[in-house]
Structure formats: structure tokens, C-alpha cells
Target: Heme exporter protein B
Amino acid sequence: MSNNPVRVHAVAEGVGVAGAMKAVFMRDMKVAFRQRQDLLNPLLFFVMVVTLFPLGVSPEVSFLREAGAGILWVAALLSVLLSLDHLFRHDFDDGTLEQLVLQPQPLFLLVLAKTLAHWMLTGLPLVILTPVLGIMVHLPGNSIGILCLTLLIGTPVLSLIGSIGAALTLGLRSAGVLLSLLIIPLYIPVLIFGTGTVAAVSEGAPVGAYLALMGAFLVLALTLAPFASASALKISMSNS
Model:
């Protein structure tokens, strides 16, 4: 499937909602693999932040074991934030986004497909890299497992919330700075409970309540964020 907006319109038109979502998802995946630099930058940033942190603060094992989960969560959060500007930007520049807005299928479902593709390309690789980096910061095995679980639940929330900010700042100058100011405060609850879950495991406390709250965040984001992103896209497109 090409990056041509006319081709995208032809593929999505005349098919069901599931077919349109699949078409948008597969197109975003293929386009991302053609632009490997945008695909690799968040992963390299994630590795660099975690690698440089012990050099800049303290390489002591006790400190890294205590702060490791927070380091990895903050690095993952910033890596997802780094990639959000490209979520709708390329489609906006080549006219594809305008065609998606005009599709007969609900826009919020197409936005959900794009956000899922963004998570598959950014959030999931971060989760896969986490065990290696967790060993590097001397986290125990049970903490690494729970950390991966919290990132698996939390990174989709980061992508879903981030899609709202990316849609609101679409077409604006200095959009990256404004996007950070809008989104980072909304990320704080996910960060707190993500790191709190790992801290509870290290102290031997039960983590069921933490995981339940993170699951609630994910359900809430899945329910509300696509609608908010779709509305923000329509506003940004009408003002551009």
C-alpha cells in the first residue's frame, strides 16, 4: 500500500470498519519501515538515557537497584513523547489525513488504528528492550518482570493520551514544545503507579491494586482518547 492519499482513499472506501482500520494500520506500519530513522530514534534515545544515567548520577549498585524502575519508566515516557510528533505529521503534510477525515467510517476508529500502529512501533519495542536494560541497572528478576508488565499496560496509555496532544498541536509551529507541555502532566499518574508497582514488589507488598488501577487507566484511555483525538483532528484540519 503506497503513501499516496488517493490510494489510501481508494483502499478504505467501500470496505467495512474493520477493513478500513486494518488498511490504516498496515499502511502506517509499512510507511514506518520505509522511514527507519523515525522508527529507530525513540529506541536509541531510550537506550542512551538508561545507559548515561549511571554515568551522570551514580554507578553504585544499591542506588541503581532502588532507582532503576524510575529511570526506565522516565526514559520510556520521554521516548514515546519523542515519537508523538510524527503520529499525524506525515499524513498531514502529504494530504492523507484529509482523506481519512472524509472517510465514511468513524474517524475515531481510524485514529485508534493509527495509535495502535504507533504503539506497536514504539511502545512494544521499549517493553522488549526493558529486560536487558533492567539487568544493566541491577534490578532483581521479579522486579524486571513486573516492570515489563507495567510498561506493557502503561505504554498504550502513553500513546493514546499522546495522540490527543499530537492532534491538538498539528500544523502549529514549535509543536514539539507545546506537545510536551500539554501531555507530560497527563502522563504523571501513569508514571507514579508504574514505578509504584515495582517499588511494592521490591518491598514484598501486594501489587494487585496497582495493576488494577493501571488497567483502569488503559480502559479509560481506550474509551475516551480516540474520540478526543478525532475531535482535535477535525478542529486542527479546519483551522489549517
Observations:
- Residues 5-12 have pLDDT under 50 and may be disordered.
